[in-house]
Specification:
By secondary structure, the protein is of the alpha/beta class. The protein is built from 17 helices and 13 strands.
Amino acid sequence: MLTKEELKEIMNIDFPSSIPRQKYVEKILSWINRKEIIIIKGIRRSGKTHIMYQLMRKLPKSNTFYVNFDDFRFDKYLNTDLLEEILNLRNPKKKAYFFLDEIQRIKGFEKWLRTHYDRETNVKFIIGGSTISLLSKDMGTVLTGRNISFTVYPLSYEEFKQFTNKPLSNFLEFGGFPEAVLENNEVRKRELLEQYTSDIIARDILDKYKLDNPMQLKALIKFFLVNPGVRISANRLASQLGIHKDTAQKYISYVIDSFLIFEVPFFSYSAKTKYIASRAPKYYIIDNGLHTIASIKKNQSKLYENAAAIHLKRNKKEIMYWLDEAEIDFIYEKTAIQITSTDKIPKREIEAFTKFEKRHKGFEKLIVNPSNKANNEVNLIPIKEFLKEPKS
């Protein structure tokens, strides 16, 4: 086991300054004095660690601790004994704050957290990780009712404008990963995004699941990165990639768990209709930059649609799509949305609304496009306005 001095040396980090992610910091801080364990999760390189740093600067330095279990010096000691040693660094007479990053690497951490959550009155745990299922399937119930979760996304367009004066076109093409946004050299920007993709595949999927044929998984991920908004079933995907349908379904769940992609189901008031095989879900990727570096040719239409999907997902909209002779890109609450990357609205977009309205009444019809030239049939909103964050 590591000595106390060795632990302190590993944990002695000179936190770099960074541009505040104020929306996240304020929301998380509102829970800092409550007992619940705070979970901060999101795709790798989205800025979770810097948000933790920004939170720590607002807490008493002497009894606040940050540990990143991805540090190679912990590799031989990843067990709950290590967590006990870290906990013993605190001054028990004062409130202690423990930021435990990538804690999913420690087997059984959930029971350890529950034990100390139930027993300790002067300790606050803030944990972070790069997978949706940060809590294991077998033990997730251990912390039910004892945690509050926050998902960190790459920069929104509003945050992007705080980080840089680059135009909207840059955000749509290269996305919102903070370090990539701040990189001005396009070659290095692309290299960063390629490295992110490799790291996510290696560390959040392959290391976790030990697949026999990683090339099949990489082919599946490449397919999704090149085709954001694709509507496809596991059966059809399996056929295209030459793998078993069960393997395809399993791989899709792994990629969703890593935050690389997310699913948008078919819109229906009937659960039976929503999930039948002919109503395959659509899949979008978590950042436009990952599409750009995976594709040979830029597709402006896909960039617009994917950016809109991320925006709605980030703002916790339960988004769906509709398809029956015509397609509606997104349905949420009582709004039907079409996304187009041209100012001249294609006739099919208007016709789709007409067909949808015959089946479903009372929906606001909205088209997102580059500008807001007048149209008497639907509401138009420019992409810049659509991507604004709602006032909380």
